[in-house]
Each structure stands twice: as structure tokens, then as C-alpha cells.
Design a protein that fits this description.
heterodimer, A: about 170 residues, mainly alpha, Monooxygenase, 2 domains, 8 helices, B: about 525 residues, Ribonucleotide Reductase, subunit A, two-stranded antiparallel sheet, two-stranded antiparallel ribbon, 20 helices, binds fe (ii) ion
Chain lengths: ~170, ~525
């Protein structure tokens, strides 16, 4: 009998994920999945609630492939998945945020950071510390004057279209 | 990079745990205990600078705490397992109320569970050792409450004559369209986002504002309907709440003196109040007034006294001298207190196969009470209930489904994207100003402006697949079956539109209605407004 925690969509994706054989193929798969299916700027909402499940499976597979490559414990905690220094990579993102004082730009940076760096792309010890700095700044920019903006201004800021039933 | 685990280990090394449980030694250890972090600052983002010198007003030490809590546990479980068992308390509850408790206690369990994480989030964010200790005590309390709320369903499951639903609501609620609302207010509200905003949601609004009308009123209504179980447990929970309200007050005090932090407070207070109100006001009012046979004080009166006068007036009033104002949305909330729970009740009745409880429409006596306390109630809601009754609402052979009736009469049901609650624009009497928007190829529905604002400001925060999106294309009886909505005979439904043990609906009866779940945001002819 059908249920909602084991669907055809998941099965199809699981097959595709199981066939990933290298870190580089996994990275490519995860990057394009996140670009297409995650965040408010995603290209499509077609996958509905399956998104987080599928993303987590790609991350798991990629994490597994990464650890199977002969890397040291030290590197697992200090390097990005493509071998760069995690501290420097995160530092670059934080630096990019320094001059931003617009909440929409800051929001874009936070979304891009999450898509680019969420583990296993960057080890969690560096990713989370960086995200804390970025999100704290986004929260500050958002809270100021939030109660004074009218709904109309906010709709325009977001570029939404109003709909009605014909 | 601060690792909390490491910090705990280091703190324990500096202050080894006492070698005995001698009260004096434990007391001294706790007083000396400080959270010795090398680098200040917790794991999670926040806008605020929390004062390192904050004092915990509520100076309870662990020796007093543990002794006090163990006595409370003894009294509560002792009463339940000895006194109330022998009195057959489980079967003295009016069935209407016994059914309501299937959802009420189960939904509140979500809040208690999320409060564990919320208080832990605050422990992480706080900088002052005393303040950390206050939050830590709350973590322990909330673990206790999670067990207690679950125990109410467990006890009912063993002692009440219709256990179905008390036994498996955690499973079945996954398809209940009213359930995501509690996840939004209590789940996300208590533990996601800025730690201080979580504290405002949990301690300043949910606990300081709503636990009085919620838990105190609830026990009163329970007792009036023959339920001795709920007051025994919930009043024991409520005795911990003073400590939590004090924690909320301390959170505010710890950020208020910093001018940089103070700038953010009003926004968070307004948003938190709306988030909590939007769920609690309709849900509690619905539970009390529609889940009872014997009525107590009308919800609108309790709400006005506890929320409007006591909390917004007196509690927040004390903070006025620091520049804190009551939320802008308070006036709209006051309107909701009159009608929002009636709107929700109508939708709950229309969606009865998905609620997991046996729900009877108001009888004549109840209708008179509603009309006397909410003038205009009958013409708006009572008439519809009477029409449904005459069309065979209760009868499994009549083939009548209120959901279909609504669609056929042009009363579309949508799901508010922010609060995640269902609403019906054409039948709503509460503060309502619906809007329908499209962004990046996805359509969104909102029942009113405050929630729409919250979403427009932080859209990624409200990512959520609503009931229609999730189950679009499912035939209703298949969905109910897959979610565990049948009794032990394998065919009779958990949910019923009446309280009798005869004429109970089965999966077959539901299947005959031939309802395939649609997504109203897809099937209707939506066009851009120019
Ligand atoms: Fe609690
Ligand atoms: Fe609490």
C-alpha cells in the first residue's frame, strides 16, 4: 500500500544517488540539486516535500565517498571537499558580508553561502561558525524598521504577483 | 571556535562534582559553578548582546529544586495510579471532553518537547552563569512536562472507554490539517531563529501570556466535564511556569540595557505575539467550548482578562518605562478572540475524518449557549450545522460530506502559509484580509496581513508543504488508512462525526464519498490582479 514516506520519486533519486562513484560527481550532483530545488530562489518546486529527504541522501552519499578517499582525520576537519583551507574559504564569505548594509543583498549572500558550503562541502565546525556570523547580521538588518514597512512596500520588495480567482 | 562540550568538560574540571548528595555540599557546588567558556558566544546566531552580569531572579538551588519536583511527581502519579484508578476516573469523563483530550494533550506535548530545545538554545546564548542556570532548570522542567502531557494520553488510553486515538495520535496527527499549526507556533516558534526571539515566543508570550488562559482555564473546563486526570497533571505542570516566566523576564532584562540590542526587541515581540496568538487563540477556544458538554466561562472573557488586561496591560505595562510597547497587532488579536475559534471549529467539523477524534456537532443546548455568549453565532454558524445535520452529517449511509458541501457552495478552503492553519475566506468571521500571491512560480495563500508581512520579510523561514500540496491526488480513505486512522477491527474509523457506538463510519463509507484531495491553488482559475 502506498504511504508518504516511501515514494516513487524517492526511489528514483535513490537509484541515481547510489550510482555516484566519485567525489567530483557527487559534488556536481549536490550543487545542481541545491541550485534547482532548494532555497527561495529555486528553479522549481516540483519535488515538493521530497526536497529535504533527497538532499540529505546526496549529502550522505557524498560524505561517504569523501571519507573513503584516503584523507586524514585532520583534513576532514579543516579542508573543504575540494581540498581548500576551510578557514580561508569561510573567511572569504564573511569578508564579503562586511560591506553589505542592504537586507536583500545580505539575504542573497546567506542563501548562496548555504548552497555552496553546507556540509559536506565545508566541515560543520567551520560552516556553522561562519553561518552564525552571517545570519546574525541578516537578522539585525531585517529587524530594524520591520514594523514600519507597509505590506505594499514589502510586496514590491519581493516582486510578488497578486492573484485572484476568475 | 567554541565547542560547548569541551567547555562543559573544562568547567567540570575546574569545579569537580560533589562527592556526596549532602545538601550543603551540592548547594555550595552550584553556587561556585560557573560556565567557564574561553570564548564568549554560543553556537547559534542572534542579533542581541546578552549582558554578562545578568542575575537570575529565581534563586532555586538544585537541592530545593529536586526535592520540590520529586514531591510533585509523587503526588501526581500517586493520585493517578492509586486514588483515581480506584474511583474509575477514566470513565467518569464526559465523552465529548474525553475525545477533545485526544488532540489537546497530544498537541501540547509538541510544545513541551520544543520547549526543551528552546530553553537549551537560550542556555547556549546566555553569557551570565546565573542566567544559564535559570535556563538549565527550565530544560529539566520541560523534559518533565513532555512526559506528563504524554502520560495523560497514556492514562486515558488505559482507563477511558474509547482508547482509540489516545493510543496513536502521534501517528495520525501527521495528516491532521490542524496539526502543522502547533508545529509552527510551538516547534519553529520556540526553537528556531534568534535565541532571544525564541525566548519571547516561549517564555514572554506562550508562558507568561497564554499558560494562564490555557492551562488554568483548561483544568477548570476539564473538572466541570468530569475529568480529574487533566487537572492533576496540568496544575502540576503550571506550578513550574512561574520559573519560566521569570526566565523570560530575565531574557528581556539581559538585553534591554544595551541600546544596540534594544533596537530589535519590539519587532521580535510583535512577531512572537502574532505567531503564538494566531494558533493558541483559536485552538484553545475551540478545544474548550466545542470539546465540552458543560460550559464554564466563555473563551472571549478569559482571553480578555488574561491576555488583554493582565499580560498586555499589567505585565508589559511594567516594561513601558523602558520603551517597550504593546504589539501593534493586539487590536486584531482581540477581534480574533471573539470569532477565530468558531471559524476553526467549523473547519474542524468539515474535516472530521482527519481529526482522529469523535466529534459531535453542537446540540440545541450548546447552540443556545453560543448564541447567548457570542451574539450572531447562530445566524452564521448554527444554521450551517443544522443544515449539515439535516443532510445526514452523522449517518454513514447518507453519503454526505461537509467538505463537498463547502466546495459546492463556493466556500473554498485554503491554507495560510505563515500560520499553516486552514481558513475559509467566505465563512470567516475573525480578523481576516485574505491575499493570494505568486513568487518564483509558487502560489501562496494568506488569511490576514500580519502573517503575510512575516512571510514577506523572512520567506525562507516559512518553507512548508501544506496539506493540499502534500496529499494532492490521494483518495481520502486511502490516506486515512495509510496514516493509521482505523480502529483495531481494521475497518472502523478512528474519527467519527458522533459519539455513539452504533452507526460508526468505516473505511468503506469514506471511500464511497469518492473524495480525491485537490490543491485549490492549482485547480482554481487563478489570474494576476492588475
Ligand atoms: Fe512546559
Ligand atoms: Fe514552561
Amino acid at each position: 500500500m502506498a504511504n508518504w514516506y516511501n515514494t516513487e520519486t524517492r526511489d528514483e533519486w535513490q537509484d541515481q544517488i547510489n550510482s555516484l562513484r566519485s567525489v567530483s560527481a557527487g559534488v556536481e550532483c549536490l550543487q545542481s540539486f541545491r541550485a534547482d530545488h532548494t532555497g527561495p530562489d529555486r528553479k522549481t518546486y516540483d519535488l515538493k516535500k521530497e526536497v529535504t529527504w533527497i538532499e540529505s541522501r546526496i549529502e550522505m552519499r557524498l560524505g561517504q565517498l569523501h571519507s573513503e578517499e584516503l584523507i586524514s582525520d585532520e583534513d576532514l576537519l579543516s579542508k573543504t571537499i575540494d581540498g581548500k583551507c576551510a578557514k580561508e574559504v569561510v573567511g572569504e564569505w564573511v569578508k564579503k558580508a562586511a560591506d553589505i548594509d542592504c537586507k536583500i543583498k545580505m539575504e542573497g549572500l546567506c542563501i548562496a553561502y548555504r548552497k555552496a558550503c553546507k556540509p559536506p562541502m565545508v566541515p560543520i565546525n567551520y560552516f556553522a561558525a561562519g553561518e552564525k556570523i552571517l545570519i546574525s547580521k541578516l537578522m539585525r538588518l531585517r529587524a530594524i524598521g520591520a514594523l514600519d514597512q507597509t505590506v505594499e512596500e514589502l510586496r514590491e520588495m519581493r516582486g510578488v504577483t497578486r492573484l485572484s480567482v476568475q | 571556535m567554541a565547542s560547548s562540550n569541551l567547555a562543559v568538560k573544562e568547567a567540570l574540571k575546574a569545579n569537580p562534582v560533589p562527592s556526596s548528595v549532602d545538601p550543603q555540599e551540592v548547594h555550595k557546588w552550584l553556587q561556585d559553578f560557573s560556565w567557564d567558556f574561553k570564548a564568549k558566544g554560543g553556537k547559534y546566531p542572534t542579533k542581541y548582546n546578552l549582558d554578562v552580569n545578568t542575575r537570575e531572579q529565581f534563586k532555586l538551588t538544585a537541592k530545593e529544586y529536586a526535592r520540590m519536583e520529586s514531591i510533585k511527581e509523587e503526588r501526581q502519579y500517586g493520585t493517578l495510579l492509586d486514588g483515581l484508578d480506584r474511583l474509575d476516573a477514566g470513565n467518569k469523563v464526559h465523552p465529548k471532553w474525553g475525545e477533545a483530550m485526544k488532540v489537546i494533550s497530544n498537541f501540547l506535548e509538541v510544545g513541551e518537547y520544543a520547549a526543551i530545545a528552546g530553553s537549551a538554545l537560550l542556555w547556549d546564548a546566555a553569557q551570565s552563569p546565573e542566567q544559564k542556570n535559570g535556563y538549565l532548570a527550565q530544560v529539566m522542567d520541560e523534559v518533565r512536562h513532555t512526559n506528563q502531557t504524554a502520560y495523560v494520553n497514556y492514562y486515558y488510553g488505559k482507563h477511558y472507554y474509547d482508547p482509540a486515538g489516545h493510543t496513536n495520535m502521534r501517528q495520525f496527527r501527521s495528516v491532521n490539517p490542524l496539526y502543522p499549526g502547533v508545529r509552527r507556533a510551538f516547534g519553529d516558534g520556540f526553537l528556531a531563529g534568534d535565541a532571544v526571539e525564541s525566548s519571547i515566543n516561549l517564555q514572554v508570550v506562550a508562558e507568561a501570556c497564554f499558560t494562564n488562559p490555557l492551562i488554568v482555564s483548561l483544568t477548570e473546563w476539564a473538572a466541570a466535564n468530569g475529568d480529574e486526570i487533566t487537572p492533576t497533571v496540568y496544575l502540576s505542570i503550571e506550578t513550574d511556569e512561574l520559573r519560566h516566566m521569570a526566565n523570560g523576564y530575565q531574557t528581556l532584562v539581559s538585553v534591554m540595557t544595551d541600546p544596540e540590542s534594544f533596537k530589535y526587541l519590539q519587532t521580535d515581540l510583535d512577531n512572537a505575539f502574532w505567531t503564538q496568538h494566531k494558533y493558541l487563540t483559536p485552538f484553545v477556544g475551540f478545544g474548550l467550548e466545542y470539546g465540552s458538554k458543560y460550559k464554564v466561562e466563555p473563551w472571549v472573557k478569559s482571553w480578555n482578562r488574561w491576555v488583554y488586561e493582565d499580560w498586555a496591560g499589567i505585565w508589559l505595562g511594567r516594561l513601558q518605562k523602558f520603551g517597550i510597547k504593546s504589539p501593534k497587532c493586539l487590536a486584531d488579536a482581540k477581534k480574533d478572540a471573539m470569532w477565530a475559534h468558531h471559524d476553526l471549529a467549523l473547519l474542524a467539523a468539515a474535516l472530521w475524518p482527519l481529526t482522529g477524534i469523535r466529534m459531535e456537532l453542537p446540540d440545541e443546548e450548546a447552540m443556545n449557549w453560543f448564541e447567548a455568549n457570542y451574539p450572531g453565532w447562530y445566524d452564521h454558524y448554527g444554521k450551517i450545522y443544522n443544515e449539515w445535520k439535516s443532510l445526514g452529517f452523522e449517518d454513514p449511509k447518507a453519503g454526505f460530506c461537509p467538505l463537498v458541501w463547502m466546495m459546492q457552495n463556493g466556500h473554498g478552503i485554503f491554507i495560510d502559509h505563515t500560520s499553516t492553519l486552514p481558513f475559509c475566506p467566505t465563512l470567516s468571521k475573525s480578523a481576516s484580509n485574505p491575499s493570494f500571491l505568486e513568487m518564483n512560480g509558487k502560489r501562496f495563500a494568506f488569511s490576514e496581513g500580519h502573517g503575510e508581512r512575516q512571510w514577506l520579510q523572512e520567506p525562507e523561514r516559512y518553507e512548508f508543504q501544506n496539506f493540499f500540496e502534500q496529499y494532492e491526488g490521494w483518495e481520502l480513505s486511502e490516506l486515512v488508512k495509510a496514516a493509521g486512522g482505523v480502529r483495531s477491527d481494521g475497518k472502523t474509523l478512528l474519527s467519527q462525526p458522533h459519539l455513539r457506538s452504533t452507526d460508526m463510519w468505516t473505511l468503506e463509507d469514506l471511500k464511497r464519498l469518492n473524495i480525491v484531495i485537490p490543491d485549490p491553488m492549482k485547480i482554481m482559475n487563478w489570474q494576476p490582479v492588475h
